[in-house]
């Protein structure tokens, strides 16, 4: 794709969750139609999209039809089968690109990539069996955390080692999946940068947000984050370095630990990110529109922040508070999910706490 | 409807244009599904709605099915056939109510209603034939403007009389439709108030915007409007008076002429209004969400303005400027219409011009 996608064209989105839903809405503002590829029915994104391919990722015919019906393809989750990506990419461009996806799909590849850029990460080691875990513990020490290399999110696929005695259980928790051992980082708080890069290489970062997790799931993001001016600059520079190294097109989320020794990269997500939801009410152009602009070959929008915001996730039964929240000044964003299961992200609210200074 | 509509319910919208499109998007933020009733295919609203009844307003079976499939019904245009409204209202509540619709559908009824509240309007007189037009001219004088009582919008169905000599042509322009003659008002500028009233009678008004028209179509709305503090208060009070008198539920647009003698009501529109599009980027809760909240029986949202905004309509070929506009900080809102016909509203942009003081 060398020319910008014209308004009226259709954007293909792999995945029908809340990120796809909010991407669809943002795309509609720019006059685009959207087509969701999602095996499940009644998905959050399908409610607001023009078209829905309710097909599996192993249905090559459906994937081909989907690719032929759209102008460009993006995704809202990382764990897309390689065979599906191969079939799609043969027909239409996929943004962000396969390198970005492959890098972030695998914790070891990701850490190696970040280290190759000279960026700081938690100490880590490849773990394939009991012997390599023992060696990793000898190098990294405990406490540490064993994580599957692939498919982990929101704290799943992880096992903590308080001492070397926990090694056997932790390895069993991996269910035979390749893993990495990560040392703990002594950080004061976590921030994230939502960064965007356009097809012509322009980069724009939103102000970093400060994240608080609960039970391994993001609970709140607050902007502005508690950072020095130098830390803010570092955060933007390292995000841009990552985007450029990946020849990235779209929005990327970069999670950072703030430590006395500087910013340490926790992980990157090659997509719009939960910690960027505050941009919907804190900026004129939100992360979802920024992503659509980038993958459509449009210029990036203005990511300036006009307001201070606290974003709070509504997890499971939190959504039952909506009647009370509706009486406040909070901006409500619900995902149209029917069942408020424990741990399920049902929506979020953005509380404006003041004008940006 | 005595209980608030629960998130997950479906809201029925009559009309598939850009107002229905933006109402659908706002409804999705609150977790509602939407169902559009629109005879035309590929309509702006159907792109972002869950369901679309592509049926005529004379199809009583389709209207009944539509009403049975939704929790509440609203509309994005006024000229809905009475027989359709009767069929729908027998099954589900319609907000805003029939009184509001009947009042605003007919310029004479509207003027009589406003006069009954003691509000100022342009001088007007009922015109049914040549004799009544002659009498009207004798009372009101010229210049004046003859307007059909019903079905007029964006300057259509109107004929100007520079002198009494234009009477014959003006009457012919009405094509036999009942009309009213309106005297000209010597106003300095036009402003509008976007006002909302909830099911339990709470009222909330957005800051008035100042409107500039071109060829009878709204061109720009600027907030804040050029008004004294007393005029602002008057505008809010008269809007609330209108809402309460109509036992109104939803968002109402009130167009006002600013004159040395005070504010004169030009017309009211029982729906979200083009002159309220600035709220999408100037407020946390926009007019579309405010309308959805009201008709769903939810509390009204916070209509405070955080930014100064200039809204500019993109009419016809204006939309060809989008590639250049995309390079600016303007927020783009396109309607997904394929053909940029002259006079057709294709989208709008909101330019943030500063923090609200």
From TrEMBL, chains A, B:
Record's keyword annotation contains Ligase: yes
One GO CC annotation: cytosol
Source domain of life: Bacteria
Keywords: ATP-binding, Ligase, Nucleotide-binding, Purine biosynthesis
GO biological-process terms attached to the record: 'de novo' IMP biosynthetic process
Pathway membership: Purine metabolism; IMP biosynthesis via de novo pathway; 5-amino-1-(5-phospho-D-ribosyl)imidazole-4-carboxylate from 5-amino-1-(5-phospho-D-ribosyl)imidazole (N5-CAIR route): step 1/2
EC number: 6.3.4.18
Subunit record text: Homodimer.
Protein name as it appears in the record: N5-carboxyaminoimidazole ribonucleotide synthase
